Amino acid sequence: MAISNLQKARAAYQPKLPKALQGPVKAIEGAATQSVGNQAEIKELFPNTYGMPVITFEPGEPTALPPFNVGIILSGGQAPGGHNVISGLFDGVKSLNPANKLYGFILGPGGLVDHNYMEITSDIMDKYRNTGGFDIIGSGRTKLEEVDQFEKGIQILRELNIKALVIIGGDDSNTNACVLAEYYAAKKYGVQVIGCPKTIDGDLKNEQIETSFGFDTACKTYSELIGNIQRDCNSARKYWHFIKLMGRSASHIALECALQCQPNICLISEEVEAKAMSLDDVVTYIAKAVAKRAEEGNNFGTVLIPEGIIEFIPAIKKLIAELNDVLASPEAGTINSANEQIEFVKQHISRENLATFLSLPADVAAQLALDRDPHGNVQVSLIETEKLLSRMVADKLAVWKKSGKYVGKFGSQHHFFGYEGRCAAPSNYDADYCYSLGYNASRLIANGKTGYMSIIKNTTAPAAEWIAGGVPITMMMNLEKRNGKMKPVIRKALVELDGAPFKFFAAHREEWAKETAYVYPGPIQYWGPTEVCDQPTITLQLEKAK
Ligand code: FBP
């Protein structure tokens, strides 16, 4: 494998660890915990892993442990820093006993079920330290939820003498990690399961988890690109750039990029829902800002669009909920083609939802009616919302032009940023945070924990002051409808409209809409002054400052 000079230099970077993890640890247990919702039901579903305390690690005395092996799985979408979680776990496990081995399951949870694995040796590990991507073992979206899969898993875990499995994933994958931990505990199989909070979307966070890893680097990568576009935009002064950003349902990425780049417009899906805005309201909001800038002779600008926005327009949300139920019916399971599926849903949804369905452009309606990902999510990354909105804005401006309400020229360009940032080389923040998460997971394993997520807190302070520990996954759960059935799932964290990041944005957006107040963040820096290289996201800084 040929490697770049940056990668060579970056390989030598030693990620920082919290002080508590720099030597032997002792686990301090907090009080018993409760799930965030549906407590009685979650307790009944997870009798062996419910109510466990939050753990904090403090410096302790060394203890000798017999050798043990650990397995690791990368699950779901890529996020910068995954390799550092693995290197942290690798170093942590080896520090407990050099004879310990780490096995990686190939291409996600499917690797566990299909017994597809490799041993991660130090030679292999060293090639991936501080690099982006998940390519060391690959990732996948197979949903681990059937007893049959758990039983196939235990066969290979026993064969490889694996004492604990670490699952690196988002809310859905960690939900599955929790179900697996409960199953193995109930069966007394003696295999621990530990989760790790990953996703660029930033929606796996709560009182205990400050941020999911990868959010920092992905947002900084998109912000660099948005900044470059804004400079081009302000140089040529002839285009409105419509930029869709990944993030699935949550608008955290769009909001963070807005805080970093100060675009003219940033839509926030959660606000669209709270204000019960229709698609036309959203279009009118953008068109008004375009018209206002045109009055000053500014026929250019930038619009950030969270990829999930369509799901938050109340009428469309209602439609999607019914489509999910209809598509989960046994009858839908026999459909053979996309056209058949579209016709099927048209015949089976209510009259009100059919009217919404038919009012949408055909390509958008088709995408909503087509297949979900294995976790039941609409594949919003496939919907070209940036083109849809700019087309509708152009139509509205054309009408306004006729009545003299709009005086400008409207040219548009479209972008979708998602895959560009998911495998970027981790920022110093993600490199350190991920390495610490992995190293910390080895301490949770050594302390016999299962059904826990590895957590590192206080990350706006210098790394030495970070707090390491574990949180029971059941604590984050409630019941939600998935594929037509109520299921225990980790509660997704959407943008809070009374939270500090949104409030800061809302206080400045009128000025940013009118003025050309662009900020050009530039590329991620790995060496140099700390205010350039080591700053966490603005979202996290605002959240922690409140
Ligand atoms: P995870 O939730 O698995 O981390 O994935 C996040 C994400 O990047 C979303 O932002 C996006 O909607 C989706 O994955 C795209 O999925 P795919 O990689 O299957 O195209």
Integer-rounded radius of gyration:
24 Å
Largest sheet: 9 strands, mixed
Q: Which oligomeric state applies?
A: single chain
CATH topology value of the largest domain: Rossmann fold
Strand content: 15-25%
- How many domains? The number is 2
- Overall 3D geometry? globular
Average of pLDDT: 94
Q: What is the CATH architecture assignment of the largest domain?
A: 3-Layer(aba) Sandwich
For the biggest β-sheet, the strand order reads 1-2-13-12-7-6-3-4-5
Number of strands: 15
- Roughly what percent helix? 40-55%
Q: Kindly provide the name of the CATH class of the largest domain.
A: Alpha Beta
Distinct small molecules: 1,6-di-O-phosphono-beta-D-fructofuranose
Q: Could you list the spans in which at least 5 consecutive residues all have pLDDT below 50?
A: none
N/C terminus separation: 46 Å
Structural class: alpha/beta
